[in-house]
Structures are given as C-alpha cells and as structure tokens.
Amino acid sequence: MLIPAIDLQGGAVVQLVQGERLAIRDEDVARWVKRFEKFPKVQVIDLDAAMGIGDNLAIVRQIAGSLTCRVGGGIRTVERAREILEAGARQIIAGSSLFRNGAPDLAFAKALADAVGADRVIAAVDSRGGRVVIHGWKTPLPITAVEAVRALEPYCGEFLYTHVDTEGLMGGINREAILEVRRATSNRLTAAGGITTQEEIDDLDSQGVDAVVGMALYTGKLDLKS
Questions:
Q1: What is the 8-class DSSP label of residue 197?
Q2: Which of 20, 140, 148, 209 is least surrounded by Cβ atoms within 10 Å, i.e. has the fewest?
Q3: What total number of domains does the chain contain?
Q4: Any idea what DSSP says for residue 165?
Q5: 147 and 127 in contact (C-beta within 8 Å)?
C-alpha cells in the first residue's frame, strides 16, 4: 500500500533531503489534501513539533477532518498523544521518546500503549549506518533497528521503519534492510526512505510492507494513479 507523506513546517507542506535541506515548500496545504483524498491513509508529520519550535496542530485538525491519517512529531508525553488523537488522527507515531539512555524506554512505551491502546501506537524506528538514530536523525544509539523492534513489539500495533541513508534521495530503497525488520516482527510494518517507483511499492507490498512516499510524489517522479 502506498501511503503519501505530508510533512508540515511553518504552516506549509515541505520536503527535506536527509531531514535537513529544504527541497520543496508549498503553503497550499489544501491542494495536497485534495490530491491525497483517494488514499486509504496518509502520514502527517509535524516537523515543528518534532523540533520543539511550535506546532501545526490547527492544520493537523484540518487534514484529519478530510483524510484518514496517522500523525507524528513531538509526541513526547501521553497527554500529547491524546491531544493528537482528539484532533482526529487515527494513530499516533512516536519516535525519539521511545528511547532513553541508548535503549528502548519500555516504561514509557507501556504507559503510552496503556493510555491510548497499543493498536493506535506506531513506533518509529529510524536507522542510519546500521544503528538506530533519534533526535531528528542526529543522535545514534548503540542498537540496531531489529533489536529495537523486538523490544518494542508488545507496545505498538505497527512499526514505521525509515532507512535514513536513502531518505529523500530518490535513489531507491535498501530492500534487505527493510526485510530484515519485516522478519523481526509480526506487527504491521511501513517503510520509508528513498521509495521512488511503483515496482518498489509493489515489491514491498508482496512482502507485507506498506510504503510511505514523499519526495517522489511531490516532484512528480512517481505519478499518482487515478
């Protein structure tokens, strides 16, 4: 399944290369909501909330009123998770907050699952150079994605695995890295990071993996099917 990505920054839809360099900015959020309305689900990431410099909650509410979406960015507390769900998100995506002192923070993961239901929690596990990275992909941890997934599996209904090495580059995916994570969990899995072609999406789908796509959609390299 193709899941379009809507990344929000400063009230606009953006696409960043490797999470840093701005490649696309479009203040017409409604245009992209309209283009993505036929998809079963859409992924929304509030980059400002993730960086702790405000949020785009009002826009999230608008998007959630039109699309079935999962929302991440800055979910560091149970209260924030509830706020996002009350805004209309079907699921919340938690990432850096699920790790503490270089390891999965199982106490927080359990608290989050107990509060909102594990089925509504998507655990984001991002990998760069073979290791989990947090804090906007800047802090590497001494664990692998597979180790993180195995530890967090009881506390979420789904994983979002981003292969940061290929993210935003539109150069294709690291299929083996994704399938290694796929084999590590029975939970639903979504992958991101360089997914560019319909063939890649179909291949991942055949392996039971959904595909989050951003840059390839916004640049038109991957055509939206009517």
A1: -
A2: 20
A3: 1
A4: G
A5: no
Residue 80 lies in a domain: yes
Smallest CA-to-CA distance from 109 within 72, 70, 78 is with 78
Q: Using N-to-C axis directions, what is the helix angle for 106-116 and 145-152, rounded to 10°?
A: 50
What is the domain extent for residue 18? 2-218
Residues 195 and 57: their CA atoms lie apart, in Å, by 27
Positions marked catalytic: 7, 126
> 130: exposed, middle or buried (C-beta count within 10 Å: 0-12, 13-18, 19+)?
exposed
- 68, 85, 146, 178, 224 from 185: Cα distances, Å: 25, 25, 9, 11, 30
- Residue 225 located in a structural domain: no
Residue 104 lies in a domain: yes
- pTM above threshold 0.90: yes
